[in-house]
Design goal:
Elements: E1 14-15, E2 22-23, H1 24-28, E3 32-37, H2 44-55, H3 57-62, E4 65-71, H4 75-89, E5 97-99, H5 104-108, E6 123-128, E7 134-140, H6 148-164, E8 178-179, H7 186-192, E9 194-200, E10 203-207
Parallel strand pairs: 3-4, 4-5
Antiparallel strand pairs: 1-2, 3-6, 6-7, 8-10, 9-10
Helix pairs in contact: 2-4
The protein binds benzoic acid.
Family: Belongs to the peroxiredoxin family. Prx6 subfamily. Belongs to the peroxiredoxin family. AhpC/Prx1 subfamily.
Protein name: Peroxiredoxin (Alkyl hydroperoxide reductase subunit C)
Organism: Brevibacterium paucivorans
Length: 211
Amino acid sequence: MMTLMLGDVAPDFTSETSAGEISFHDWAGDNWVVLFSHPADFTPVCTTELGRVAQLSDEWAKRDVKPIALSVDSKEDHDNWISDINSYGNTTVEYPIIADPNKTVAELYGMIHPNEGDTSSVRSVFIIDPAKKIRLTMTYPKSTGRNFDEILRVIDALQTADRAEVATPVDWKSGDRIVVPPTVTTDEARERFDDVQESFPYLRTAQIRGN
Ligand code: BEZ
């Protein structure tokens, strides 16, 4: 198995999910995708995580993002577990959960880390853009639930970087000052952005117009 790297095309696959069979690229369409794996259905941390993703449905939609989960459990397990997630999270899971009992997709995406317990998937995250390119990966151990506010934050950063051709500094969130990329001169930056400040020749920050 080759390790998937940033900029690689996210491999396509066809799989059964809790919402029916999907062809991944067709299902993604022109949206961004958050493909995330969890170790197992009917486990506590996973129940909290999948509920949080459902609670954030408006936030994903605002950003044209489709979430999709995966574990090596069966569709029948997913279907039975969803009512627990909904009940605990006071929410409704509407996004698909991939059923991957043969581990085909989990292995394709390197989601099984043999030194991290058994042969189920770890907590992997792939953020995939509308061109199907992998833009960000994260891997969390089984014991640690993810922070989906951080995943929304990095999607905001990636979408802002694409739209305004900028970079974003530490702890950036929507509306904060951006970093002027090294390829842009300070004169050009003053034409494109508001309130350009030069701390060092290599560290210029600015406000995106209209923010
Ligand atoms: C959990 O979701 O709680 C969990 C799953 C696998 C290993 C450890 C924790």
